[in-house]
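Sample A.
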Amino acid sequence: MTYFAKMRHVNAWLFLLPAMALIVAFTHVPAVNTFINSFFLDGRGGMPAEFVGLENFRYLLEDEVFLKVLRNNLLFASGTIPLSISLAMVMALLVNAKLPGQAWLRLSYFVPTVLPMIAVANIWLFFFTPEYGLLEQVRSFLGFSGVNWLGSESTALICIIAVAVWKDAGFFMIFYLAALQQVPPSLGEAAMLEGASRFCYYRRIVFPLLMPTTLFVLVNATINAFRMVDHLFVLTQGGPNNASSLLLYYIYEVSFKYWDTGYGATLTLVLLGFLGLASIIQFGVIEKRVHYR
């Protein structure tokens, strides 16, 4: 290897070093520490942490709150992921068409994305507030009885799902819109000459071409479904009776409210395990159906 080739090799590693240092310091080291802490019982009153082996994992299987929170998170993901992706695709198709006021329509769809999480939660808190909330005023005008949307176990999680879909759909729409604008118009013209219907054109040509974008959006939607915590602070704080609590919020409560960092680390490993499983499915199975141009 010549001197200049060696220097290029060294320069490449020097350019990578800052990013690698940040990744190791804020990703790999915390992940290793979390794995180690999951085998310890957090010391109380200044006492050192006690090694308990798999005791935290045994307690995990007996923790009724964890099982309920895990079920909530799976239901939350099952609701938000398909709804937000489907709605984003429909919105992108609408704003990509030549409609009057197209710019304003795009802006209205994207506005929820740029709003802070806490602001979004407060907006919807006004909608769901019993008696004088906007939703209850409309129901009262139509003659329906009042409903405590966030205070009922049967409706609290549904309300959280609605807020998440409203927040994420506009963000995902941007990616679909960019992908639609990259579809060559000649494909649509060729489909029309062949006598293909509009439904057939979108099903056989447009949607397959959107699969790379769909995979990207699916990964982001899955991550969002398991890192939801901001809205819960304002809307329900996990209540009533943990009916709307999600896994990350439960980790926060255990680790920082009850100061049980060992059990919190165990719950974090479960969360990482679900995200890892989702990644295997997405990149090992779904990606095989993706055709990159």
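Sample B, a different protein:
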Amino acid sequence: MGRRPTPAPSHPRTGRPADRTERRARIAELRAAEHRRERRRTLALLAVAGLLLAGLAGGGALLVLDARQDRTDRTDRRDQQDRTDTAGAPIPGVRTYDHLSRTHVTTKVAYPQTPPVGGDHHPVWLECTGTVYDRPVADENAVHSLEHGAVWVTYNAKAGAADVQALAARVRATPYSFLSPYPDQPGILTLTAWGAQLVLESASDPRVEQFFTRYVQGPQTQEPGASCSAGSMPLTRG
């Protein structure tokens, strides 16, 4: 007689074959693995969605920045055009002078204009960093500052205190400009640049701003970018 086959081992409590228990364990393991894969897939999708949203937000920010930059560029171009238009239009009352000498001298110079608009001058320039002087300055040093592109504001005894204060405030706010009294000048208020001069009666005259816009480091500047700071020098005429 042949040998009977050995029966499959049973579960110790249920008596069911052990392969069913193993199958259920295997299924549970597969489901757990699938759950882990789904979780990783969900997290990956969320990460991609986050990146897309961040990209959209960043793109929106870039669009906003581009729009702001475009507005700034348009404003800058408009301001530049305004300056160009202003620079090209004559300022009523401004007298101009050509062919001014630029020799450095250490002697007094007899200038034909009062205040002088250019010509031979002292080797050391007058400080013109928005400087306000309360007494007359040496012409020869001041002319050297004009050569560097500064605007010189002067006034005589007929000038009102309010006008002097207004011009002083304008000068203090403007590098490459300076102000000083000039008792014997014919005009009440005078604005001078190298080769250009304007006589006024009031600081509220709109030509004050036009003159500053045109001539502070303007096209008449003989030494563009030259310093307006200075060391020791004569500060009074005489």
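Observation for Sample B: Confidence is low (pLDDT under 50) at residues 11-16, 81-86.
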